[in-house]
Write a structure and sequence with these properties.
The protein has about 250 residues and is an alpha/beta fold. About 35% of the residues lie in helices and about 10% in strands. It is globular, with a radius of gyration of 17 Å.
Length: about 250
Amino acid sequence: MQQESADFPALAAPGAKDLAVLDERLTGCRACPRLVDWREETARVRRRAYAGWEYWARPVPGFGPPDAALALVGLAPAAHGGNRTGRMFTGDRSGDVLFEALHAVGLASQPTSTERGDGLELYGVRVTAPVHCAPPDNKPTPQERLTCRPWLVRELELLRPTLRAIVVLGAFGWQALLPVLGGAGYRLPRPLPRFGHGAHVELAAPAEGEPPLHLYGCYHVSQQNTFTGRLTPAMLREVLAAAAERAGLPVTR
């Protein structure tokens, strides 16, 4: 399989036997030329504040235990966050807000996330995204989302035995995730549920007798939302705690 081929995700993801194999294959993907050029150019130019960093500049895999009961789904890594550090929501202000809230409700070992190897552990939570490379202007194209989709489909299939709830950060992530859930076998209602902060939808599991999946909407932890007060720390903690309780995870209130 050629990593530069647009078919690489569709060929490589389904056969991954576990999340470790999936993540290893994902980090070598070069299927989307525009995203490859952008992530690598960003690593060459860098920001002055990160001049001494050796950027990750590859697709960023999901982060968290393989038996997670709760998943957090964003949209794509940030150019100088995940694309720099190699871990989702790590090294940028969006991540600062997210991990502080996760720690506050008892789902993370510490309130900060600065780099891989900083000691952060997630408790029953996995953080991932529909697009695994940093896109220009934080806007992947519809085709890039489609090309990247098999990675998240397989990730959710592998998490299915333990996954009970998902929090989706932002409307773009919500729109990207719904077809992924369908591809992973979950039964979507018609019409499709609309995004909203605090929205909650119960999805029937792929197989009879399996527990349902609880889908929650939350405004994205972008500076545009957190600096303006559209998303406050209390609002974020409330959604995370509600989803964690549905997933059967212990929560600090």
